[in-house]
Amino acid sequence: MKFEFNEVITPELVELLEQTTLGTNGAMYRHLDVPERIYQTDAPLSFSLRRKEHLLANITFCKRDFGLYLRYFAFDKRFQSTGKARQTMHKSVLKQEIEGVFQRVTSEHPGSLHMCYAYIDARNARSKWMSEQFGFQTKAKLATQTFSRRYPKKSTRISKELITEEHLSLIKSTYGHYTAFFDHYIQQGELHCLRSSNGNLLALAKFTNVSWEISRLPGKMGGILVKALPYIPVLRKMIQPQKHQFLVPEAVCVVNQDAKVLTEFLAGVLYMEKRHTMLWWMDERDELYVNVKNQVKWGILHQILGVSPVDVVIRGDFEPKEPMFIAAFDMI
Questions:
Q1: Which of 239, 260, 28, 48 is nearest to 149 (CA)?
Q2: What does the DSSP 8-state code read for residue 293?
């Protein structure tokens, strides 16, 4: 049982990920746009375990200047952990091979500097247990913040713009000192920008359209709620479980951290993109989020679901003293 190394994404990995449902105790969902998204993976280092022509497991990292991001850690259903498997995994060949992957990738890529990191739903006990088996520790916390509007309000001050030095200057001054900051995905495509009547830039962000199939929402009533959604008029426009389409922002910049400007911006982008919901991931220490979280009316989904926590887990001794920069691609 050996992992094969590759620096490209294979069709077998696409097939495995399309069949994978993520989550356990909290939200449970399946990505519907894997074929379009996966080939955008930056600098992949992919390790695959096969039996004959069938892919049983895959571990894929993104090699970045500051560290190795653990992008995919996926297993065929027969390898997904059960109670019995947990008791015996410390003796298994599979665990030894996975540990060998982590040792190899960190030793062969010393230029990746100081960390190997991943994001895990804080309620996902299985993933938390697995990460601990391979030396990952929780070093920071993210907030999963929803923003929803049943009838988003149009803003005539918002437009799409190709990225320029003006945009990059604002983004780097805001996030350049954050842990794991990089602009690879920011520079692809357009930004949404909000400008004053005299053309001054007041807010900007990059938004990604995402599609999930949702089988469970967070919270004790998440399983029941997702089944009831088609029958609740005020909510069925917000969440469509079989194909829920929403926006994910990154590199959100708001001049003077004005909560009213942020609200106009987010609602206006929803209107422009014909969406009703956003999922925004950011470090709990993020300066903008800390200053506006109690001033923004986040919408009905926030009232129902609250803020879901995500753990930043890191293998090794590195301690992120600055907030983490979250690329939308890493969460979707």
A1: 239
A2: T
Q: How far is CA 325 from CA 42, 176, 201, 249, 277, in A?
A: 16, 9, 22, 12, 22
What pLDDT, in 10s, does the model give residues 6-40? 999 999 999 999 988 887 666 788 999 999 899 99
Looking at this protein, which amino acid is placed at residue 65? D
Which single residue is written with the structure tokens 């040792």?
103
For residue 31, give the nearest of 23, 39, 40, 22 by alpha carbon: 22
Pairing of strands 116-121, 67-75: parallel
Q: What is the pLDDT of residues 115-134, one digit of tens each?
A: 899 999 988 888 888 899 99
Task: Write the DSSP string, 175-202.
Answer: HTTSBT---TTTTSSEEEEEE-TT--EE
Helical (H) or strand (E) element with 34: helix 34-38
- Which residue in 133, 123, 97, 101 sits closest to 28, CA to CA? 123
Q: Which two tokens stand for residue 165?
A: 């030095």
> In terms of residues, how long is the chain?
332
